[in-house]
Amino acid sequence: MGIQDIIEGKKQWRAHTARVKALPADYRIVYKEMQKYLFKVGPVDLPDGPLLPGIVDFFEEGVAAGKGVLELIGSDVAAFCDGLIQDTRTYADVYQESISAQPGTADK
Amino acid sequence: MEDLTEMLKGTLEGCVLQIIASEETYGYAITRQLNELGFADVVEGTVYTILLRLERNRLVQVSKRPSGVGPPRKFYALNEAGREELNKFWAKWQYLSSRIDKLKEGGR
Amino acid sequence: MNFWETITGSDLTREWKAFEARAETLPDDYRAAWDQIKHYLIPQGDFTGRSLMPILDAALGLLEETAAEGQSVQEVLGDDVQGFCTALTGGHGARTYRDRWREQLNRNVARKLSRLGG
Out of the domains of life, which is the source (chain C) (predicted)? Predict the structure, then answer.
């Protein structure tokens, strides 16, 4: 990762955080809890992929339609998160693969 | 009907594909259509996660268009791969329902 | 020569130094948690330092985010840091830990939304 990428990444992240701050309180609370969960589960495209900004897009639409956040995504927020990252690789998957790959290469 | 969620899980993606196949449309409209069909428990968030997956698996074509209220809307149309996936879904559905019907009739 | 360098190769030390610089700015209890996380993750890390990097990055990112919100580190990681690390790396028992994260997420949302007053 070059310096430029890091600076660009920071700028984008700040813009993203500003959008989150502008959401109504209920949306903001749910977004932050979701982000915490997603950070832990660790899908590989989380930091620079379209997932998090996509959630904010979706939430902004919900706000514009005058809906409450749980009305929009249902009360099982964890199930919603799992749906978002279904079929995507996590860092844990990558790590587990790297461990199990080792004995194989040692054999050769 | 209540408590459909678990049973509906594997088939909802096919339902969404079918809805998109008949016309280019967006998340909220898809949700309303499913609700009117009798799946009252389906919320926009569920449809959002399905659309995200369809997009990730390149089964749909997405275009952003301005909406009367709030931020621009994402419209979804099926592409060739999406149509193939939809055909597969109906073939599987037919197989499944015919087997289950047979079971109910006493396995003849 | 530091420990990390010996097990991973020096090309990763630059990234590693960046982690440490970030960790320096955390509050004390968070820094202690970071040390614990390293303690549990790094011994498993021989030859796999590279694939461990994103996991450490995510863990540090989580600490930074939640520290900025003023939450206690206890609330974020729970009591079982070792279990937390197991779940991060997808090791044995990761599934039960992820179930706990799910419950925690829904519980936090319910609690904080009710505090909003409806």
Answer: Bacteria
What is the extent of the structural domain holding C74? 3-116
Spell out the domain ranges in chain B. 5-101
What ipTM was reported for this prediction? 0.79
Beta strands B73-78 and B25-26: pairing type? antiparallel
Indicate the pLDDT class of residue C69, thresholds 50, 70 and 90.
Answer: confident
For residue A16, which residues of chain C lie inside 8 Å, CB to CB?
none
Chain A: residue whose CA lies nearest to B51: A84
Chains meeting C at 3+ CB pairs closer than 8 A?
Answer: A
Total number of domains constituting chain C: 1
Distance (Å, whole) CA B44 – CA A60: 13
- Domain ranges in chain A are 3-107
Which chain B residues touch A72 with a CB distance below 8 Å? 43-45
Question: Residue C73 has what pLDDT?
Answer: 85
Domain A3-107: give its CATH code: 1.10.1900.10
The three-state DSSP-derived secondary structure of B45-92 is HHHHHHHHHHHHCCCEEEEEECCCCCCCEEEEEECHHHHHHHHHHHHH
- In this predicted model, what pLDDT tens digit does every residue of A30-66 receive, in sequence order? 999 999 899 888 887 776 788 999 999 999 999 999 9
**At C99, which CATH number?**
1.10.1900.10
Q: Say yes or no for a CB contact (<8 Å) between A65 and B52.
A: no
Architecture of domain B5-101: Orthogonal Bundle (1.10)
pLDDT in tens, A76-85: 999 999 999 9
Q: For residues A51 and A43, is the Cβ–Cβ distance under 8 A?
A: yes
